[in-house]
Every structure is written in structure tokens, then in C-alpha cells.
Specification:
This protein is of the alpha+beta class. It has 2 helices and 5 strands. It has a 5-stranded antiparallel β-sheet. A hairpin with a 5-residue loop joins strand 2 and strand 3. Helix 1 packs antiparallel against helix 2. The chain is elongated and about 65 Å long. It starts with a helix and ends with a helix.
């Protein structure tokens, strides 16, 4: 019975690791083929939470075709990470709505978070089978 639990942990770890790799690959493709530009923070959207308000910046940029595009960040912070009127570097895919802020956390956030969960699960699940095999 206990082997099923460790098998489940190992399998979940492998699945999360796979999705981490997919996120990393998508980000690398965006970095290699995307268009880099500057975006202006035009607004801060307040998000109500248990401990008060956090703020999501609204970015606006002009693409290569001259079309102005705006988008709301996925990340809310308190205090606000940016001020209205501030410029940030972004990278976007010209053929889709895929875009990210150029920073370590902005580019690799999802890959890092998935790895933080997958690695311990794979160590625990795989370690059990290595230990059981050694007995």
C-alpha cells in the first residue's frame, strides 16, 4: 500500500517537472524570437485581499505595426512594484498575445515554482524506490 503513495508522489513530481520544462521552453522561444520594447505603466489596478489591497500594473506599449496594446500584469504586489509613468522592458510574440516583463522573475516565474514542487516530490518518491531496491 505504501508503494502506491510513493509511486503517486514520484509520478506527480515527474508531471510537474514536465510542465516546468514546457514553461521554460516557451519562455526561451519568446526570448529568442520575440520583439523587445519598452512599456509604460499607465495605471495600477487595486486588488482587494485579506490583508488589504495589492496592486497590478497596467502596461501599454506600441508594437512594430504601430498598434497600441495594453495588458494587466499577472502579479500583484504591495507596495506597488512600479509607479504610473514608469517604463519597463517587455518582450512579446508578434503573432500572439504572449508577452512578459523582462526580469528574472517575470520570465521564469512559472518554471521556478513548478520546479520547487516537483524536485522534492521526485526525491521523496524516487528515494523510496532506491531504498527499497537496496534492501
Amino acid at each position: 500500500m505504501i508503494a502506491y503513495v510513493y509511486t503517486g508522489l514520484l509520478a506527480l513530481g515527474v508531471v510537474l517537472f514536465y510542465f516546468s520544462y514546457v514553461q521554460f521552453s516557451k519562455t526561451q522561444e519568446l526570448v529568442n524570437t520575440g520583439v523587445k520594447t519598452k512599456a509604460e505603466v499607465v495605471d495600477l489596478v487595486p486588488v482587494r485581499g485579506d490583508k488589504g489591497y495589492t496592486y497590478k500594473p497596467v502596461y501599454q506599449y506600441t508594437d512594430r505595426l504601430g498598434k497600441e496594446t495594453s495588458f494587466i500584469s499577472d502579479v500583484a504586489t504591495r507596495p506597488a512594484a512600479y509607479e504610473v509613468g514608469e517604463y519597463v522592458n517587455i518582450i512579446y510574440a508578434p503573432d500572439s498575445d504572449f508577452r512578459k516583463v523582462v526580469s528574472y522573475w517575470g520570465l521564469y516565474r512559472y518554471a521556478i515554482l513548478l520546479l520547487c514542487f516537483s524536485i522534492p516530490l521526485m526525491i521523496i518518491g524516487g528515494g523510496y524506490f532506491l531504498y527499497a531496491r537496496a534492501l
